[in-house]
Design brief:
The protein is an alpha/beta fold. About 40% of the residues lie in helices and about 15% in strands.
Length: about 475
């Protein structure tokens, strides 16, 4: 949905329900009596467990949340409360003044929260902070109506306006603000590495390196040395010291792609990195600290791999602090044509190209195709079609999607009927390309507006929609 300035102003005039989540774990009774005074303006929804919080987040969106952070914030509690970042609301931390001396609390506020409020509660000040949080959330809602496009990947770009991709975009923004490990799941070709790059570029680590390592593409005997590096003389052929991928990502981010293919005996070494923040090069007896954010990506069910004994359960839970699941292309049908047009523009500008777009039949076949290779398959097919098509429009057969059950000429179809069909499809494609602008379409077709209107009438088409009238 496109919103102009007037539409944006109207959007902000729509009143939002004032609902606030209050996250207090069972047994916690801080001095929060003044929260009762919020009920004259806000609907207060108490949440006692992280599980119930996640269930609430799945059922409905709430703009604002209050979360009590205990003074004794252990590492375990810190890891648990990081999952607050998965909820859709903007969190305001409630804490005792002594909590400002706890480094875990300060880091958590920085990574998860919109703001903080010291106890005892000052109702008027807290209402102002909550109103500001709701206003910022409304701005993010407005931004979510615009297409999410992330470019610059060596593989392909992340493009989409469908609801599921808008949700992915929202989660990328949320996850980027934290510094915990991330698990990205999805079928091959859905853009897992691109999501990891988008998170890195929006995070506080964007000034550091981004390193990607495909665990499934490295020979079994080399994974350890590739991950952790080695010292000179560590083994035959080690003529000099080599820095591993994790060390190379120091102050930045490392993506371990196809993490499910990592050998079981090496998973304990990775677990040590996540727990202690230290690595040990092959051939060295010294552990060295590294400051790196670890992301992992996989197209396999890691929970099942844990049950089957192929993946360490403790490592799985360490990696799965924050999670983003990428949908296959077949589940975001409304993005298929958008992506096709995007790749067409991208590849057609790389060379002198007389192509003008896709035929309606090409659009039809793209929507029918199941896309087992997902976005990567679509990109490759469009790139090939741009290079190989004779034009002026890309046809299904140029995309390799031609239905072999249908011949170009239907049984009994005359030459005039073939000519009329091609002419009609060309007009439809040009109207679609020019957003049904008759002047531009007539110019690109090399005919007058009068002639184009006559052809539209001949084929019973509407200039506004391209749909047959009557």
């Amino acid at each position: 949905m496109d919103l102009d300035m007037t539409g944006s102003r109207e959007f902000f005039r729509i009143p939002l329900p004032k609902k606030v989540l209050v996250f207090l774990e069972s047994g916690v009774v801080p001095s929060l009596n003044a929260i009762e005074s919020l009920k004259d303006e806000w609907e207060v929804v108490p949440v006692r467990t992280l599980e119930s919080l996640k269930k609430h987040a799945r059922k409905e969106k709430t703009s604002v949340g209050l979360a009590y952070f205990p003074v004794e914030m252990t590492e375990k509690k810190y890891r648990e409360l990081l999952s607050l970042a998965e909820a859709t609301c903007r969190w305001i931390a409630l804490l005792e003044p002594e909590g400002l001396g706890n480094s875990h609390i300060l880091k958590l506020i920085h990574e998860v929260c919109h703001d903080f409020h010291l106890l005892p509660v000052d109702p008027q000040r807290l209402k102002v902070v909550m109103g500001h949080a709701q206003g910022m959330d409304r701005i993010s809602l407005l931004a979510d109506h615009f297409p999410f496009i992330h470019e610059g990947s060596p593989d392909f770009d992340l493009v989409g306006t469908s609801p599921v991709m808008q949700e992915v975009a929202r989660r990328i923004r949320k996850v980027a603000s934290a510094d915990a490990s991330v698990l990205i799941t999805g079928e091959s070709g859905t853009g897992k590495e691109l999501v990891a790059r988008a998170i890195h570029e929006r995070s506080s680590r964007r000034g550091g390196p981004f390193v990607a390592l495909n665990c499934g593409a490295i020979p079994y005997t080399l994974i350890q040395s590739e991950l952790f590096g080695y010292e000179k003389g560590a083994f035959t052929g080690a003529s000099s010291r080599k820095i591993g991928h994790i060390e190379a990502a120091h102050t930045g981010t490392i993506l371990l792609d196809e993490i499910g293919d990592m050998p079981l005996e090496l998973q304990v070494n990775l677990l040590r990195v996540l727990e202690k923040g230290k690595i040990q090069r092959v051939g060295s007896a010294v552990e060295m600290p590294v400051d790196v954010r670890i992301m992992a990506a996989t197209n396999v069910d890691l929970e099942k791999a844990c049950r089957d004994g192929r993946f360490r359960e403790d490592l799985y839970y360490r990696l799965n602090v924050l999670k983003i699941a990428l949908p296959p292309l077949r589940e975001r049908e409304s993005d298929i044509i958008t992506l096709a047009q995007y790749f067409f523009q991208k590849f057609s500008t790389d060379r002198v190209c007389l192509l003008k777009g896709f035929t309606p039949a090409a659009h039809r076949e793209m929507l029918r195709h199941s896309w087992p290779g997902n976005v990567r398959e679509l990109m490759n097919r469009v790139q090939s079609a741009v290079l190989m098509s004779d034009g002026p429009f890309i046809r299904p057969e140029d995309l390799g999607l031609f239905d072999e059950k249908e011949s170009f000429q239907s049984p009994g179809e005359t030459l005039r009927e073939i000519k009329n069909r091609v002419e009609r499809d060309t007009i439809l494609a040009m109207l679609h390309r020019n957003h049904h602008n008759v002047n531009l379409s007539a110019r690109d077709l090399g005919i007058t507006r009068t002639t184009l209107y006559a052809l539209l009438k001949k084929y019973g088409l509407s200039a506004d929609t391209g749909i047959a009238e009557g």
